[in-house]
Amino acid sequence: MPEAPDLQVILEYLQPRLLGRSITGARETRPLVLRNLTGERFSEDIAGRSISGMTRHGKLLFIELSDDRVVLINPMLTGGLRYTEPDEKLLKSVTVTFDIDDGRQLRYFDQKRMGMVYYLRPDQVNETPRVEEQGPDVLDAPLSIEDFRAALRPFRGEIKGILTRGRLVSGVGNAYADEILHAARIHPYKKKAALSGEEVVRLHDAVFRVPQEALILLREKIGEKIHKKERRYLNVHGKGGKPCPVCSYEISAITANQRVTNFCRKCQPGLLVRN
Ligand SMILES: [Zn+2]
């Protein structure tokens, strides 16, 4: 679920609460999500370490610990975090729990256990899947149009796939890719090679603007409820069958590779049939 704007709100909530705090204990409550690559026993090795840094790149969250340890969280589609009182009911979806020295707990939950929580030494971070291949973060300062054109050059295939892969820009998933392409008025299955110069200019504008605007909204809407999925304000994603907020035409929904793509055929023309 969390794409860059969602994860940024989670990070901003947790940073002032966790930075400088110590982890007094931690455990895996359900298997298959934690990947401990340190060679040490997780629960024993992490206890007593303090949280010295928290950063995000794209859809990845990094918690830096004292004495050469990093917790890297890749929530994928279904993962998320809760910061709770320890007596709050432990939901079945919780897979890893960290005890914090303020008496509270940081819990990683993952309905489908698709995400990963890595426990690493800092020198192992770049060996972790998806870390090295990430492009510039979509919430960072936008690339210039010239740099964006150059960055786009090596890519082939459909534009939505290029946006979600993480190499051109990092942090855009299925939902924000639909939103960006609607704002840019580009059909999601249009091939990159078929984009006009004008479309590349619109894509460049939308790719950095739409997530930034979403972040401003999400800060207000999510507040303390960092475990909640807030997607109602989106224009097209998840809105199949509803009227397009720009032109009122019915929003299309196409499912391919187990993910839904929503777009407006009127605002985003280009392809009548897709085989
Ligand atoms: Zn429309």
Features:
single chain, 275 residues, alpha+beta, N-terminal domain of MutM-like DNA repair proteins, Helicase, Ruva Protein, domain 3, five-stranded mixed beta sheet, four-stranded antiparallel beta sheet, binds zinc ion
Explain this structure to me?
Helices cover 25% and strands 23% of the residues. It contains 6 helices and 11 strands. The model has no long low-confidence stretch (mean pLDDT 94). With 275 residues, the protein is of the alpha+beta class. The longest helix is centred in the last third of the chain and has 26 residues, at 197-222. It folds into 2 domains: 4-127, N-terminal domain of MutM-like DNA repair proteins, CATH 3.20.190; 154-263, Helicase, Ruva Protein, domain 3, CATH 1.10.8.50. The chain has a 5-stranded mixed beta sheet, with helices on one face. A 4-stranded antiparallel beta sheet has the order 1-7-8-6. It starts with a helix and ends in a 12-residue tail after the last strand. Zinc ion binds next to loops.
Distance between the termini: 28 Å
Within the CATH hierarchy, at the fold level, what is the topology of the largest domain? N-terminal domain of MutM-like DNA repair proteins
Say what oligomer this is: single chain
Report the structural category.
alpha+beta
Helix content class: 25-40%
What is the gyration radius calculated from CA atoms?
Answer: 20 Å
CATH superfamily of the largest domain: MutM-like, N-terminal
- What shape does the CA trace take? globular
Largest sheet: 5 strands, mixed
Listing every helix as H and every strand as E from the N terminus to the C terminus, the arrangement reads HEEHEEEEEEEHHHHEE
CATH class membership of the largest domain: Alpha Beta
Domain count: 2
- Strands of the biggest beta sheet: in what spatial order? 2-9-5-4-3
Strand portion: 15-25%
Task: Enumerate the spans where pLDDT stays under 50 for 5 or more consecutive residues.
Answer: none
The overall strand count is 11
Present as ligands are: zinc ion
Could you report the average pLDDT, rounded to the nearest whole number?
94
